[in-house]
Amino acid sequence: MLRTLLTASVAAAAFTGIAAADAGDFRFSGGYTYVDIEDLEFDAVSLRGGYDFTDFIGVEGQLDIGLGEETVRVGATNVDVSLDYAFGGYVVGRAPIAENANLFGRIGYVTAQADASAAGVTFSDDDDGFAYGVGGEWFFDGRNGVRVDYTRIDFDNADAADTFGISYVYRFGAR
């Protein structure tokens, strides 16, 4: 149900934005994200692509690829846990605060997969959930910039995750 509602919301925002905009901007970014899930901490490479329909509304997709693993102790056994990936789609609302800077909020849905291994046995599991966050972007010129963001993911079957990211952003299109 939530996926259907989110998909319909993204589609409605896309069609509304297309009708209101002369031409939009595409954005691509790459950077680092720190992921904190209860007692587990992961590092990830983040790749993001998006489209701004207007100065105020856009959509973006994000792929986080885990780096390394975290070892936790369960009873007398060490368990290695790794984040394989997290993929999310978001609707983004922006508030320009200067010519080359904006604040943003985003809502979306994320699916993630992690592996756990101990004593030669590996178990994979995936989970998904509603995500929401805030951040800011500052562009050195009209195209190149830096982004910082915070996102909370409320997974359906696991603890919530808090993510903190910093990325290089390249924007191209109508501007």
UniProtKB/TrEMBL annotation:
It comes from the Bacteria. Keywords: Signal. Pfam families: OMP_b-brl. Residues 1-23 form the signal peptide. Residues 8-172 form the Outer membrane protein beta-barrel domain. InterPro entries: Beta-barrel_OMP, OMP/PagP_B-barrel. This is Porin family protein.
